[in-house]
Amino acid sequence: MVENRPLVTWLSHIVLIVGLVVIAFPVWMTFVASTHDQATMLRSPVPLWPGSHLIENYKEVLFEGYNAKRGTVPIYVTLTNSLVMALGVAIGKIAISIIAAFAIVYFRFPLRMTFFWAIFVTLMLPVEVRIVPTYGVVASLGMLDSYSGLIIPLIASATATFLFRQFFLSVPDELTEAARVDGASPMRFFWDILLPMSRTSIAALFVIQFIYGWNQYLWPLLITTRESFYTVVMTVSRQANVIDAVPSWNLLMAMAMLAMLPPVLVVVFMQRQFVRGLVETEK
User: Fold this and answer.
1) Dist. CA 186–CA 4, nearest whole Å
2) 257 near 31, Cβ under 8 Å?
3) Whole-prediction pTM value?
4) Considering only the top CATH level, what class is 64-281?
5) How many degrees, rounded to 5, is the angle at CA 87 between CA 280 and CA 192?
6) Domain map (residue ranges) of the chain
7) DSSP-based three-state secondary structure for 145
8) How confident is the model over 136-150, as pLDDT tens digits?
9) Beta-carbon count within 10 A of 253 CB
């Protein structure tokens, strides 16, 4: 039983409020900047309350581009690219990892544990270490400036394979024997029993991998040369680092707000499944 101590309760609430302010204040300032015009953002002091250009700024970046005079693509194109990449990476990682874990746990074949540990060792190799040979393979296959080039090199996941393997090892052997006695094939057992039991783990991994795919910067930067395949993270970074010009901070902040929106929505709508997938012990 947790003891009720008013001082500790107040202190914990104060810490939470301070943490919330520290996290939320930059987001609030980004939103405020996205509602003003450029002249206001270049004057001191920086406004702390929303302005009257919200619809104008968001409409411009969504349908005309960051700076229509330079011929930049509208941000809805880059948002679509990021969405396709994030969904492709998340779904691909989950599909490959769960099938690989199923094969390692429920099939007996030579060197299966060697293959598993070979997959697990790749956790020690970050993307930056293998990015040059990966780029060479993608370029030789003609996948530059394509969705397949953005997605396929990133869909293998040792972490997800390990998590699914550990979950499958916790499934009672009696369940496997009962399915075998009933005449269920391995894929029938996987599809009708293991997959429904893994739904909370799948939901938690989907949230993590969607955000991972959405926030990718280095890999899309390397393999895309056409603006029609830029991701939104790339676009925001490129427009913030202009040379011999002052960035249009109001439009840039509007782009940043739009870039933050999809991951936030995924977390908000899947937060219950995400938490259950992380903390639930009896699945």
Assistant:
1) 52
2) yes
3) 0.85
4) mainly alpha
5) 50
6) 64-281
7) coil
8) 888 898 888 889 988
9) 24
